[in-house]
Design brief:
Blueprint lengths: L3 H13 L5 H11 E9 L3 H9 L7 E4 H17 L4 E5 L4 E3 L2 E10 L5 E11 L5 E9 L1
Parallel strand pairs: 1-7
Antiparallel strand pairs: 1-2, 3-5, 4-5, 5-6, 6-7
Helix pairs in contact: 1-2, 2-4
Length: about 140
Protein backbone atom coordinates (compact mmCIF):
# COMPACT_ATOMS: atom_id res chain seq x y z
CA UNK A 1 0.00 0.00 0.00
CA UNK A 2 1.36 3.40 -0.95
CA UNK A 3 1.32 6.06 1.75
CA UNK A 4 -0.81 9.18 1.29
CA UNK A 5 2.23 11.47 0.96
CA UNK A 6 3.50 9.44 -1.99
CA UNK A 7 0.04 9.24 -3.60
CA UNK A 8 -0.31 13.01 -3.23
CA UNK A 9 3.11 13.63 -4.78
CA UNK A 10 2.27 11.39 -7.75
CA UNK A 11 -1.15 13.02 -8.24
CA UNK A 12 0.37 16.53 -8.16
CA UNK A 13 3.18 15.45 -10.49
CA UNK A 14 0.85 14.00 -13.12
CA UNK A 15 -1.53 16.94 -12.65
CA UNK A 16 1.10 19.53 -13.54
CA UNK A 17 1.39 18.05 -17.05
CA UNK A 18 -2.30 18.80 -17.62
CA UNK A 19 -2.44 22.25 -16.02
CA UNK A 20 -3.87 24.77 -18.50
CA UNK A 21 -3.11 27.95 -16.54
CA UNK A 22 0.53 28.93 -17.05
CA UNK A 23 0.74 30.77 -13.72
CA UNK A 24 -0.65 27.79 -11.83
CA UNK A 25 1.64 25.49 -13.79
CA UNK A 26 4.71 27.53 -12.77
CA UNK A 27 3.57 27.62 -9.15
CA UNK A 28 3.06 23.83 -9.19
CA UNK A 29 6.53 23.30 -10.67
CA UNK A 30 8.12 25.42 -7.95
CA UNK A 31 6.21 23.45 -5.32
CA UNK A 32 7.00 20.02 -6.79
CA UNK A 33 10.71 20.41 -7.65
CA UNK A 34 13.58 21.76 -5.62
CA UNK A 35 15.37 24.77 -7.07
CA UNK A 36 17.78 23.32 -9.62
CA UNK A 37 15.71 20.15 -9.92
CA UNK A 38 16.05 18.09 -13.07
CA UNK A 39 13.78 16.24 -15.49
CA UNK A 40 15.63 13.64 -17.58
CA UNK A 41 13.81 12.07 -20.49
CA UNK A 42 14.76 8.88 -22.25
CA UNK A 43 13.58 10.07 -25.68
CA UNK A 44 11.44 7.95 -27.95
CA UNK A 45 13.23 6.03 -30.69
CA UNK A 46 12.20 8.48 -33.44
CA UNK A 47 13.90 11.36 -31.60
CA UNK A 48 17.07 9.33 -31.02
CA UNK A 49 17.11 8.30 -34.70
CA UNK A 50 16.57 11.87 -35.92
CA UNK A 51 19.33 13.16 -33.63
CA UNK A 52 21.72 10.43 -34.78
CA UNK A 53 20.98 11.39 -38.39
CA UNK A 54 22.16 14.91 -37.55
CA UNK A 55 25.30 13.61 -35.84
CA UNK A 56 24.06 14.13 -32.27
CA UNK A 57 23.95 11.71 -29.37
CA UNK A 58 20.43 11.83 -27.92
CA UNK A 59 20.32 9.08 -25.35
CA UNK A 60 18.79 11.56 -22.89
CA UNK A 61 17.20 14.97 -22.93
CA UNK A 62 17.41 17.10 -19.81
CA UNK A 63 15.69 20.17 -18.33
CA UNK A 64 17.21 21.73 -15.20
CA UNK A 65 15.84 24.56 -13.06
CA UNK A 66 12.40 26.11 -12.93
CA UNK A 67 12.57 27.92 -16.28
CA UNK A 68 13.63 24.83 -18.24
CA UNK A 69 11.16 22.63 -16.34
CA UNK A 70 8.38 25.09 -17.11
CA UNK A 71 9.29 25.10 -20.81
CA UNK A 72 9.37 21.28 -20.87
CA UNK A 73 5.99 20.88 -19.13
CA UNK A 74 4.39 23.65 -21.20
CA UNK A 75 5.60 22.05 -24.45
CA UNK A 76 4.16 18.69 -23.44
CA UNK A 77 0.90 20.34 -22.44
CA UNK A 78 0.62 22.16 -25.79
CA UNK A 79 1.46 19.04 -27.80
CA UNK A 80 -0.73 16.51 -26.01
CA UNK A 81 -3.35 18.12 -23.73
CA UNK A 82 -4.25 21.64 -24.92
CA UNK A 83 -6.31 20.43 -27.88
CA UNK A 84 -8.52 18.38 -25.59
CA UNK A 85 -7.66 15.08 -27.27
CA UNK A 86 -5.67 13.53 -24.41
CA UNK A 87 -5.21 13.53 -20.65
CA UNK A 88 -2.49 12.08 -18.47
CA UNK A 89 -3.34 9.92 -15.47
CA UNK A 90 -1.26 7.93 -13.00
CA UNK A 91 -1.59 4.18 -12.69
CA UNK A 92 -2.24 2.93 -9.17
CA UNK A 93 1.19 1.37 -8.75
CA UNK A 94 3.33 3.97 -6.97
CA UNK A 95 6.05 2.53 -4.74
CA UNK A 96 8.39 4.44 -2.47
CA UNK A 97 11.75 3.14 -1.28
CA UNK A 98 13.45 5.72 0.96
CA UNK A 99 14.09 8.70 -1.34
CA UNK A 100 12.91 7.05 -4.58
CA UNK A 101 9.37 6.98 -5.94
CA UNK A 102 8.49 4.77 -8.90
CA UNK A 103 5.17 4.80 -10.75
CA UNK A 104 3.62 4.48 -14.19
CA UNK A 105 1.36 6.87 -16.06
CA UNK A 106 -0.90 6.72 -19.09
CA UNK A 107 -1.90 9.13 -21.84
CA UNK A 108 -5.57 8.51 -22.56
CA UNK A 109 -7.69 9.61 -25.54
CA UNK A 110 -10.59 11.70 -24.23
CA UNK A 111 -12.85 10.56 -27.08
CA UNK A 112 -12.91 6.88 -26.16
CA UNK A 113 -10.73 6.32 -23.09
CA UNK A 114 -8.17 4.34 -25.10
CA UNK A 115 -4.64 4.31 -23.65
CA UNK A 116 -2.44 5.71 -26.43
CA UNK A 117 0.80 6.12 -24.49
CA UNK A 118 2.36 5.22 -21.20
CA UNK A 119 5.57 5.47 -19.31
CA UNK A 120 7.57 4.79 -16.19
CA UNK A 121 8.63 7.58 -13.84
CA UNK A 122 11.37 7.38 -11.19
CA UNK A 123 11.64 10.36 -8.85
CA UNK A 124 14.50 11.12 -6.49
CA UNK A 125 12.94 13.19 -3.71
CA UNK A 126 14.39 15.40 -0.99
CA UNK A 127 13.69 15.14 2.74
CA UNK A 128 10.82 17.63 2.30
CA UNK A 129 9.27 15.43 -0.42
CA UNK A 130 10.22 17.62 -3.38
CA UNK A 131 11.66 16.30 -6.64
CA UNK A 132 15.43 16.52 -7.00
CA UNK A 133 15.60 14.43 -10.17
CA UNK A 134 12.83 13.04 -12.36
CA UNK A 135 13.66 10.21 -14.75
CA UNK A 136 11.03 9.57 -17.42
CA UNK A 137 10.89 6.49 -19.63
CA UNK A 138 7.99 6.79 -22.13
CA UNK A 139 6.84 3.60 -23.86
CA UNK A 140 5.69 3.77 -27.47
Amino acid sequence: MTDSTTRDLVARYVGVWGEADSGQRRKAIETLWVEGGTHVLHPPEEIRTAAAGLGFEASTLEATGYDELEARVARSYEEFVAGGDYIFRPKDNAVRLKDLVKFSWEMVATANGEVVGEGLEVLLVSADNRIVADYQFPNP
